[in-house]
Amino acid sequence: MIEMQDVWKTYPNGGHALRGISVKVDRNEFLYVVGPSGAGKSTFMKLIYREERPTKGSIFVNGFNLEKLKQRKIPYIRRNIGVIFQDFRLLPKLTVAENVAFAMEVIEAPKKLIRKRVSEVLELVNLRDKAGSLPTQLSGGEQQRVAIARAIVNNPSVIIADEPTGNLDPETSWGIMKLMEEINFRGTTIIMATHNKEIVNTMRKRVLAIEQGQIARDEARGEYGYED
């Protein structure tokens, strides 16, 4: 589903964020991306949904070479990638249902389909009773569930999650991870950057460790491998 071939990312100040990354992620995989702060994890994630572009190398998503993709095709690729951020990034003046629906409205989905799909995903994330609430009326965990609902509402083939439990307490974090596991079980590939040692060591999924812009480890049922 995703393949990087000798990918380098150099920023204008001359620093190498990524150096010669080559990796494959299969359909329906659950991959943790770990490593010290500043190792290149966020750059790695941004390259997949083309918020950043590589300085050198090739990136393939669902068979498309992102570097050779015409600009008008970028929205189509992004439609198949759900992105979840640590800081939620919800629209504060829209209700829960409206925040989720917005992701379908931008691709001009039919209104009837939007209503049906929004109801389905709010049921999945256990927020149907909060559909009319504003983000400020929700807890941090509930806001992250809205962000997850928004990320999956268009049935993406892959979800990119950058520190989705970073601002949450341990109990809430486990609730979010159970939800992520359920989404993965339903067939969605998940790539998640995290500093949460307990979650990684308990769930024992594939672990990709990035250090100083290079792959240090790639283990099928890996552990976090760093001290807090």
TrEMBL record:
Coiled coil residues, start to end: none
SUPFAM superfamilies linked to this entry: P-loop containing nucleoside triphosphate hydrolases
UniProt keyword terms in alphabetical order: ATP-binding, Cell cycle, Cell division, Cell membrane, Membrane, Nucleotide-binding, Transport
Localization annotation: Cell membrane
A GO CC annotation given for this chain: plasma membrane
Lineage: Bacteria, Bacillati, Bacillota, Bacilli, Bacillales
Membrane topology, as annotated: Peripheral membrane protein
Gene3D superfamilies membership: P-loop containing nucleotide triphosphate hydrolases
Stated name of the protein: Cell division ATP-binding protein FtsE
Lineage: superkingdom: Bacteria
One of the GO BP terms on file: cell division
Organism: Paenibacillus rigui
Database matches in Pfam families: ABC_tran
Domain ABC transporter, chain residue ranges per copy: 2-227
InterPro entries membership: AAA+_ATPase, ABC_transporter-like_ATP-bd, ABC_transporter-like_CS, ABC_transpr_LolD-like, Cell_div_FtsE, P-loop_NTPase
Family stated for the protein in its record: Belongs to the ABC transporter superfamily.
Subunit structure, interactors included: Homodimer. Forms a membrane-associated complex with FtsX.
General function of this protein: Part of the ABC transporter FtsEX involved in cellular division.
GO molecular function: ATP binding; ATP hydrolysis activity; transmembrane transporter activity
PROSITE patterns for the chain: ABC_TRANSPORTER_1, ABC_TRANSPORTER_2
Presence of keyword Membrane: yes
